Amino acid sequence: MTTASATGDVGITSLTARAVLFDMDGTLVDSTAVVEQVWTAFAAENGMDARAIIATGHGVRAEDTMLRHGPTGFDVVAGADRLFDLELAAVDGIVPIPGARAFVESLPAASIALVTSARRALALRRLEIADVPAPNVVVTAADVERGKPAPDCYLLAAELLGIDPADAIVFEDAEAGIAAGLAAGMRTVVVGSHESETTRGLPRIRDYRDVTVTVHDAAPDAPDPRPSFTIALPL
Question: With a threshold of 0.90, does the pTM exceed it?
């Protein structure tokens, strides 16, 4: 639902749901500079094209990126372990997306999940550095056979939350993740400036500072006792 403000110059998109599924890098945590720095160093070590990796690798599992861009015979398992060590050590410059902490805390804790292509330890480390609370349900690259843009990770998160995919909202910043959320049958909100044919017509926010949440208590006889909630997004 889209409504106009009293002044007529600002609109609001309202989405009602029972779950919110968050990507991590670029969605809750601003780590773009760190990610690109680490991948550039890794590419130089292994004879890969850093620019090509950065252009296509956001939101994609490291192993999938290495399979695509690595030289013939490249040891993807060893490469992923090496990249993980580099990423875990690179902490300078990791900050929250503005308003992320308050937004996460405004949602029912049993209705949110983190869905990331990063390894669990790295995702939790970056959230800790950025002072953004980690959801209890975390789905990572290791939990599914196919990574983003396949819908598997988001479908698994919905299953773990006990939520129908149609009742979930995905917040994503990267092409692969946006495509994954849509393929899972979930309403998807773009965080940041990424634009493509995939993002056309989707709601978009710069950050979470003007996003508000209204929680609706479930009826006493409702089959699902968890509340629903309405998220108001500024256009």
Answer: no
